[in-house]
Amino acid sequence: MPMSLPVRDTVRLLRIPFSFFLLPLFLLAYSQAEIVVHRQALAAFLIIHLLVYPSSNGYNSYVDRDEESIGGLERPPQPTVWLFYLTIFLDLAATFLALIFVNVVFAGCIVLYIAASRAYSSRQIRLKKYPVAGFLVVVFFQGAFTYYLSVAGVSGSALPLTRENMMILAACSFQIAGAYPLTQVYQHRQDLRDGVVTISYKLGYTGTFVFTAIMFVLCNLFYFMYFRARELGMIFYIIQVFFFPIVAYFGYWFYLVWKDNAHANFRNTMRMNWIAAVCMNGCFLVLIFITRNPLSYISVIETAVPAHCISQEELAAFYSAATSDPLEKRKIRIVAGKTGIENRYSVIGDFGKRAGDFEFFSNSTDLLPEPTLSQRMEYYRRHATRLSMDAVGKIEGFEGRKNTVTHLITVTCTGLFAPGLDIELVRELGLNPTIQRSSINFMGCNAAILALKNADAICRSHPQARVLIVCTELCSIHFQKKFNDDYLLSNLLFADGAAAVIVTSQPETRYAHHVEIDAFDAMLLHQGYTDMAWGLSETGFIMNLSSYVPDLIRDNIRPMLHAVGVRAEDFRHWAVHPGGKRIIDDFALALDLDKCALAPTYNVLRNYGNMSSPTVLFVLKDLLEKAKPEHLSERIFAAAFGPGLSIETMRLRYV
Fold this sequence. Notes:
This protein is an alpha+beta fold and 655 residues long. It is built from 22 helices and 13 strands. The longest helix is centred in the N-terminal third of the chain and has 31 residues, at 199-229. The chain is elongated, with a radius of gyration of 33 Å.
């Protein structure tokens, strides 16, 4: 007798739409995976939701031959042997496609999931008839294991079993542990007829709801621990917003069942399933949008200066001692008094010593012969790495998290050598040798903002990026015995310092608020092409630093902001590079700012001098550390000025 093939009923028993209820953990895995291989992720999604889950549903229906309502079907048709053959085909197809289009780890997980599903339903093993064992198998395989295999499919590699990942695996299992008994609450009679004693039957109607509430509290606790450990606490609170309708309906349904057990029926169960699935899928889609369309945030800024602190009076005295010309001595004294600098730091200790005790300069009254360029670069090589490491070393917890740094950007314009500062830092800090490196060299005082611009682009392109920026300048090694206006300014303005910044694609911070990077703008003032410039000579840098630079900035900063639609009154916080006191004064004048708004800039100039590229980061650090709760949503404007003459600006926001 030929075998019939009721195709429609067979496909219905696969309950493919039911995969929607099992989708949340895949979406969560997609949002949290360190790396996403989109082609593999799509293949994994199709394999899990169109092959594995339907096959499991179909096999369960074939074995149980349900006559009453089951998940997704209020009146299920009776299965035929063709359903069994179809599940075998789907299992084989899922395994084969997983090997071909995803990876071996994912394929292995699929095989284990299929085996557990068969053991749960098959008449030979029938784990589902044991209330505790069956419950634990479902909780593990549909919870933690499903998240694990989803990550393997999405990222192309196994999930590292770190402390944080164990937390989210636990959260996933407790999530299923809460949901699963509710799916059984209307099936007590049908299960008993089939010899199956479920965890829901053991708990009773009221006990099932109480147990589910406890499991969801534990699920929430582990979500909180996971996102807090990853410094993503904001995401946990986003989840709570989406979970509220689920909790509200759950409470309402519990009230109905408390009054009358007849409300523990198929329709209310499916209504609960739909509300939970819609809310959770929506929640994790939002998480995907947040994590896969990342922004960039300044996580922390730390700074360092050399051991030698030199007052402006000491430096002026050292400079004056190198000339016997009274006019030159007078000019040094006048310029030194107008810089707004009280102290600065240098890797050179000679500025506070007398001739005869010098280590860097010639031990003669006139400082001749001056150190050669080679000697200056050797001094740079010797001290730059150490000072850079001092700044990085101040980042709290860096040693334990340095392997999470994905990119390194070094910034300097006062010295060069190869292998360069970037490679020295990778070696000395023990960073991952596969870290992505780049360097911004010889671009002057605004190079830190250029580095932040690069870091911003990296973070917006890589959802799990963590960029370390290190700006190090040893300006004082280029002190030269020259007395024209250019060298009077440069010798009496510049100092040494380093700053280290962590920029991330996910919000994490040590400050009162997260600091989101909004936008960057730039302008080249070609009329100032020769007013800030330098070149190389046998004895060091040839400086061009004219007194017209403040005028150029004053005349152009407002038109520049107007051109990009920025209004000064929209910003309450300002981090401006202290190129010199006149530059700060004229910047405030041009934008009608109260000088109090630039207090961090004046403070850094007074206490550290102009350290070139890291200086604006010193200012920004001071500003961020003084943030208050009421500053939430307020905006920050940063600006720095470099050769060319170039203006680089950055907009940030407390979020």
